Amino acid sequence: MLDTPGHEAFTAMRAHGVKITDIVVLVVSAVDGVMPQTLEAMNHAKAADAPIIVAINKIDLPTANTQQIKQQLSNHGLLPEDWGGKTPMVEVSAKKRLNLDKLLEIVSIQAELMELKANPDKPGQGIVIESRLDPKKGIVATIINVTGTIKIGDPFTVGAAHGKVRAMLDDHGQRIEELKPSMPAEILGISGEVPTAGDVLKVAENEKEARHVADKRKLNRREEALSHQKHVTLLSLKSQVDQKLLRNLNVVLKTDVFGSQQAIKDSLEKMSTNEVAIQMLHTGIGNITESDVLLAKASSAVILGFHVDADSKVREAAKAADVEIREYTIIYDLLEDVRAAMSGLLAPEIIETVTGRAEIQQIFDLSSGRVAGSLVREGKLVRNQQIRLMRAGETVGTGKISGLKRFKEDVKEVEKGLECGILLEGFKDFRAGDVVEAITKEERIRRLAAPGA
Hints:
By secondary structure, the protein is of the alpha+beta class. It contains 10 helices and 23 strands.
């Protein structure tokens, strides 16, 4: 059994904890009711597609209200079996040890239905729960063995590290010689990098193979880091769908009040198509937090905020994790941004901004080509910048500034009020009196017109 803390600050621990569990037992206080961390745990379990069994605890207290808890859970998609739903719920008291046998029985039945089995007669394979660098023991990883048997002396790989099992300690700190399926233990003997939670420890045939696999993984991780792989954003959504890299748009939604949250949530869920489905990973009331960023990072989700804010620490965390935060004050803008990104009917809008204008005063034919002797009237011109040529208010051509000269010297840019010679690439039929407009281009999401507009 893997027990994760209930405090909301431990979102990351619950996130990777649920990935390595077969069955989630969600403990809810019959007194306190459904808390924000309860909803987070539910959302992590749903994202991992793990079955949920609810244990309604503290029923021995006089203020316990189990029916209210069931109603709260039903409102969030967990309908009790005795209400016609599919979620087993057991009323228990851990302190008085009431109905714990019933809870264990339901867990056992669920395991039988899922046919959870493991073969102990093959090389072991476990998943890292926690790891640390101990000053005396070296790198220590806490794992749960998933299948097979791990023995003292076994060579292994774990993440981008490798090693040979030097010692194993059970949950009581006692040394053990072998680790069977579903057993937890601390593993000593890891060489290289400290593994991270979620890494797989796999017994190898020999130390040479383990070292080779670890080196290959280390190289792959380095290449992946250099590629600066991005998480999904609204602008990149369509291209990822076209490449069949994405089937769902995962969303974390934060709003200021429940009414707005429900309206936006219902509208987004109705927008799902055969090509892309909206998956609401988490909804909540209040400002965007680091917990939201952690969940979005783990699930490649976009965070949508309505009338809420994110402080500088949260924004820095989102930037470091390549998580996109989009904030809105108008519901229609939020819905249309998502709709445009999902449907792919609208390509990103190309916004052209004029950053400088120069009037051509005189034409010079030099060995390097035709040069437009010009006076910069507005802004500035920069070498290699895109331009359009205007004549009597009409566009007569486009091109690029291939060179800029001040007197006889090549320069990178020319400011307003200065004369210069402009070499243009892509258009040669320019004349005295023409205006060279320097432009920059920016991609922005196009918004569909509101219905009835």
